[in-house]
Design a protein that fits this description.
Helices cover about 60% and strands about 10% of the residues. With about 230 residues, the chain is mainly alpha-helical. It folds into 2 domains: about 5-155, Ribonuclease III domain (Ribonuclease iii, N-terminal Endonuclease Domain, Chain A), CATH 1.10.1520; about 160-230, 2-Layer Sandwich (Double Stranded RNA Binding Domain), CATH 3.30.160.
């Protein structure tokens, strides 16, 4: 392990018994490919474990603290809490990008700051903590590091789903509009594209948006539609 990895243990407030698990959690698949390592040495399998326990721990927390909320609402709240953007927020707070083992190509194209890589590594760290220290340690980490996000979601102060909001606005008069998100262009290599999207309603072009994924660009197009005076 490197000094940086030991520093990272201090940041996450957990000391690994199996140091190899932490290194694996911080190892991106591009590093394994470039160094001719087995694919099982990257963090994808730990990400799989972390995903399951993140769902379980957050779901249990919501179940215990929101006794009057029905299952459908609980599922929506959990989805917001464990989404890629939430994981990225936690990863950025922990500075996880600077500790990652990345391939040179991924490094050059900004991999240390890429949303998907940071989110996946955060999930892998959760999986590693669970395998090394058990459910209680994983739960302690999640509830501590996601505390602010949990509070924001429960108070309704979280990133808005602009696509849902714009759909509600366009259906206010009782009609069922034809809404489409159209990709105008894609720029960049496959692993790091920028998408340009506009929203159409009943054949009329409304707002537009840009993002590093189609989903992000669509949300930005919906936001522009709501805030840009189109409706």
């Amino acid at each position: 392990m490197t000094v940086n990895s030991e520093d990272f243990e201090k940041k996450i407030k957990y000391k690994f018994m199996d140091k190899g698990l932490l290194k694996k959690a911080l190892t991106h698949s591009s590093y394994c490919r470039e160094n001719k390592l087995s694919s099982v040495e990257c963090n994808e399998r730990l990400e799989f474990v972390g995903d399951g326990y993140l769902d379980a721990i957050v779901g249990t927390y919501l179940f215990k603290h929101l006794e009057d909320i029905q299952e459908g609402k609980l599922s929506k709240l959990r989805a917001k809490l464990v989404c890629e953007k939430s994981l990225e927020k936690v990863g950025i707070k922990l500075g996880i990008g600077e500790y990652l083992f990345l391939g040179k190509g991924e490094e050059k194209t900004g991999g240390r700051n890429r949303t998907s890589i940071i989110a996946d590594a955060t999930e892998a760290v959760i999986g590693a903590i669970f395998l090394d220290g058990g459910y209680e340690e994983a739960s302690r980490f999640i509830l501590r590091e996601f505390k602010e996000i949990i509070q924001n979601v429960l108070s309704g102060n979280f990133e808005k789903d602009y696509k849902s909001l714009v759909q509600e606005e366009l259906q206010k008069d009782g009609s069922i509009p034809e809404i489409y998100y159209c990709v105008d262009k894609e720029i960049g290599p496959d692993h790091h594209k920028t998408f340009y999207v506009h929203l159409e309603c009943n054949g009329k072009r409304l707002g537009s948006g840009v993002g590093n994924s189609k989903k992000e660009a669509e949300q930005n197009a919906a936001c522009d539609t709501l805030n840009g005076g189109y409706i």
